[in-house]
Amino acid sequence: MKRSNYVLFTFAALLLLSAVLFLRGRGAVKAAIAAAPALSNQGLITAPGRVEAVSEEIRVSSELSGRLRSVPVEEGERVHKGQTLAQLENEDYAARVRAAQATLAERRAELLRTVNGARSQERRAVEAAKAVLENARKEAQRRRNLADRDMISRDEAERYERVYQVARAEYDRASEEFSLVDAEARDEDRRRAEAAVAAAQAQLSEARAYLEKTYVRAPIDGVILRKLRHAGESVSTQFDSPVVTLADDSVLRVRLDVDESDVACLRVGQTAFVTAEAYGAKKFTGRVIRVGRILGRKNVRTDEPSERVDTKILETLVELDPGQILPLGLRVDSYVEIRPQRATSGAKP
Questions:
Q1: Is pTM beyond 0.85 here?
Q2: pLDDT score at 18
């Protein structure tokens, strides 16, 4: 009887020890499984991202409505700031410039006439009229003397007297006109002429500005991403009708969607790298240059069936190191290295 009790007690003790070891093993396995993801990504924040240019994408449109005469650029072509990307049909605008130039020349001539007074031609005209008058006077006097001595008829003498009177009238008219133009310009006349010149100059500047707007020029140095309009097509300022899109890809950036659970670890200046499926295991290095201030919806989708679309993210920008080339718009996997926090000096144990 005593032997059987001993056997039962021993069996119960072994059963209890096995149960304890089994439960402890399950806990260790659970802990290992829970810690596995943390260990695999220890020191890194992972997030999907998309490659973009430093200028982002610029949609270049015309400031005027009209029909395109030419679009002399192609996709992938590098352009410089100020280079012509497209030209509208602009014959009417060029005509306005020529008309404004003619008006300005006329107003300037009127100002010179007002300021300078009589011209040399007008002076010579008065002198010629005076010479004609003097000759007519002498001839009329001679004819009167001959008529007094009955050497010529009175009708002939009177005819030369009329010629003399006509010459005097012409001289008086020329002298009067000369006195008007030769007088010193009055302030109000000069100011009126100067204002007319300024108005003509403004009209010319306006006409040239409109003519310049018929040329669509590159706002920055960059590369043509899309050619959206061709020669013969119309553009309008009433709706969005860009001619081309371009971007400055001299510096590449990656816009990350960082999960809200990782935002506390983000800092500007942290080192980072990105990978892309098309480039295998190659890493493209960079650093964090901007961390967003407001959470929002995801911008980059991974196309995974298990992906959650209701997760809040924080937009973060990583600038890639110079010399690294990636296609714009490429989706990448991004990794931000977390810097360990240093202990505060002087802290109490």
A1: no
A2: 67
